Amino acid sequence: MKETKEQLLNELKKSEDWEKDQSDLWFWEKIGRLPFKLLDKFTPAFLQNKIGVILDELGQYVQSGGSYLSSVSSVKSYYPNHDVENLDDVSVIPILEMDQAVTKLTGNRKRLATVQGASTGFGGIFTLTIDIPLLLGMQLKTLQDIAICYGYNPNDKKERMYIVKVLQFVSSDIVGKKAILNQLSLIDSPEDEQAKREVISELQGWREVVFTYRDQVGWKKLFQMIPIAGLLFGAFINRSAVNDIAEAGMMLYRKRRIRERLAD
């Protein structure tokens, strides 16, 4: 059964309140980039090359989805109690049930991220450089699956651009967050083609987005450089990182779906 306009407005307010809470910029997020500037100098060349290869693969995600593209067919598993065959069927499911599907998905991904972080944290500084692109890939996958839960198709290039902007949003400071929220609000607008073009042009700098992301998590990964002890830090940090990206994806995608329903 579809929600009433009043119910949709109440749900929309939850997402808007969340956006306002994102305005607080923690001081340590700014100085936390130093560890990775140092890390670059001491990382063995073969690991630097490996990171470069993975970053190139992620760059292909924007253009074609690459190896990180989620399958839309997975939508059936998210709604076992509904007769769901495609994304059009999902678009009429109540928002609260969509939220429940995403919450369950997020729990599964956080457990996976915990194991991954512990595994890569065990080796200290050497496995840390591999951990970052692996974590980024998991976050990409999580955002795509959240999109599917709300009835959006990550096979569409517009959705891949939207997902990259969500990644960028989580890694940005307060000024950047405000600008990205404005861009995301315009991405579905049929009237503002210029805004869409600006979003597309910004995504040409995909590698810069990745390096900004990497620098932003620098201080959090600092303690993971310690062999053995890094296991605990890696597990906690990766779990938190997936939780943050999933929360942003859920709030931004649910807002988008609610706005579309209100427009209808």
- Report the β-strand fraction as a percent range: under 5%
**Radius of gyration computed on alpha carbons:** 19 Å
- The overall number of domains is 1
Q: Give the rounded overall mean pLDDT.
A: 77
Order of helices and strands: HHHHHHHHHHHHHH
Biggest beta sheet summary:
none
Number of helices: 14
Global geometry? globular
SSE-based structural type: mainly alpha
DSSP E strands, number: 0
Task: Report the span from N to C terminus.
Answer: 15 Å
Stretches with pLDDT under 50, minimum 5 residues: none
Helix content: over 70%
Please tell me about this protein's structure.
The protein has helices at residues 5-21, 27-31, 34-42, 45-64, 75-78, 87-90, 95-121, 125-149, 157-171, 174-186, 193-202, 206-216, 218-221, 230-263. The radius of gyration is 19 Å and the shape is globular. With 264 residues, the chain is mainly alpha-helical. The protein has one domain (44-263). The two termini are 15 Å apart. It has 14 helices and no strands. The longest helix has 34 residues, at 230-263.
